[in-house]
Amino acid sequence: MRLRNLLIIITLCGALLAACSTSTPDDSAPTATPVPTATTPAATVLSPTTNLTTSTSITNTPQAQNSPSYPGRIAYTGVEKNSVNIFVMTPDRNFQKQLTRGSGVSFQPQWSPDGKWIAYFHYDSQKDITTIWVVDGAGDTEPRLVSPVEGVKTASGLSWSPDDRYLVYQDVQPNSNQRDIFRLDVTTGELVNLTTDSPKFDTLPTWSPDGKQIAFVSDRNNPTKGSDSIWLMGPDGKNPRELTAKEGAWENTKPAWSPDSKQLAFYRWSLQKNFDAPGGPAGLWVLDVASGKEQHLVDFTDWLPSDAPVWSPDGKLIAFDYGNQDNTDVWVVSAQGGKPTQISKLPGGEKNISWSPDSKAFVFTNFQKDMLTLYLAQPDGSEPKPFFETGSNGFGNWTR
Questions:
Q1: Pairing relation of β-strands 341-342 and 328-334?
Q2: Of 95, 142, 289, 365, whose CB count within 10 A is highest?
Q3: ω into residue 255 within 30 of 0, thus cis?
Q4: Neighbour tally for 308: CB within 10 Å
């Protein structure tokens, strides 16, 4: 598969791809077109002071002086000559390691809550199969296949349980094109369909930080309009209940838990332009789970659903991407409300936000034609900085 095709898959699918053997790396993949040099408009590149333990396809240059220091590690997807793999680095890039090898596309890494494991998708282009794998974040063991060998069809949005044992994700129902939510035991491989009670679309699961509930999106209560609503269920799929009102056929989607498990941020929108009905307006909302009280934080006038909003670990800020299908930018707003701060003004789209453990910075990915670029940003609105001068890299996920 040519590199351009790999990048198109990453950009369009958002969640990719499978069947990477844990034995000998596959070096037989055809050579792909080299990655074009990444452009960094109006930005300073963050660079390390020392040589790093990484592939020579990623450029290493001197670190920018007076760069802020942040805790934790960042997992990300790096595009090489003939494959796309998972890497991990410290924010200052003084440590960097490749975790997966071989042909195919490994993407969308997601740290377990304890910061030990990384779950990710892998796409085998020859078999046209996407599977789910887990790798040790320290790189001390080989990656391990955890999903069924036949793969998943439309899986996206991996979410870990707080005890690091399970992953939940959406996939197609058996013998149907509808969606269900599945719980995968990463230790035993046991796969459980949590939403067999519904013949409708059940999507976008996210586990509460306290482990007691799973929020998800469903149109099960809206048979005529098909409007999405936010729902809750137990970790075993039992006792589902609807949280958001159906007034005016609003779409309610992309739930994101606050760190204390008491609130959900989500998007409310409509397919109809200038839609005006009770329960609006369109925008970023926060819902108190116990009382059902909703607060409108940011008004959206020109927007298509994108990534879920992301709470800072201290619960004070919410980052989100906003725009249209041609250009999205990253914004930050106080979880209490107020004027949002625009963070990025780059060409193309910005997605895949992940906060630092101390809530003082976050990473995001800029998507342009045939190119991914991982950026570091601060919530004060200062200029974001790309991590690398050349190459394509993105899907950053930050852990402690």
A1: antiparallel
A2: 365
A3: no
A4: 23
**At 370, is the pLDDT very low, low, confident or very high (cuts 50, 70, 90)?**
confident
- pTM for this model (two decimals): 0.86
Q: Per-residue pLDDT tens for 233-271?
A: 999 999 999 999 766 678 899 999 999 999 999 999 887
For residue 174, how many other CB atoms are within 10 A of its CB? 9
Residue 272 confidence (pLDDT) above 80:
no
CATH number for the segment(s) 3-36+47-52+73-340? 2.120.10.30
For residues 198, 199, 200, 203, the Cα torsion angle rounded to the nearest 10 degrees is: 60
User: CA angle at residue 245 from 241 to 246, to 5 degrees?
Assistant: 105
Token pair 């300073």 in the structure block, residue: 44
**CB-based contact 249:227 (threshold 8 Å):** yes
Strand, coil or helix: what is 241?
strand
Which residues, at least 6 apart from 19, have a Cβ–Cβ distance to it below 8 Å?
A: 104, 122, 124, 127, 129, 131, 145, 149, 151
CB 62 within 8 A of CB 49: yes
Nearest residue to 202 (alpha-carbon basis) of 175, 238, 178:
178
Helix (H, G, I), strand (E, B) or coil at 248: helix
Q: What are the residue boundaries of the structural domains of the chain, listed by start?
A: 3-36+47-52+73-340
Write phi, then psi, for 215 (nearest 5 degrees).
Answer: -90, 145
Q: Are 386 and 76 in contact (CB under 8 A)?
A: no
Q: Which of 126, 129, 182, 120 is nearest to 151 (CA)?
A: 129
Distance CA 325, CA 28 (A): 37
Report the 10 Å Cβ neighbour count for 248.
Answer: 16
DSSP, residue by residue, 3-52 = HHHHHHHHHHHSS------SSS----SPPPPPPPPPP-TT-PPP--SS--
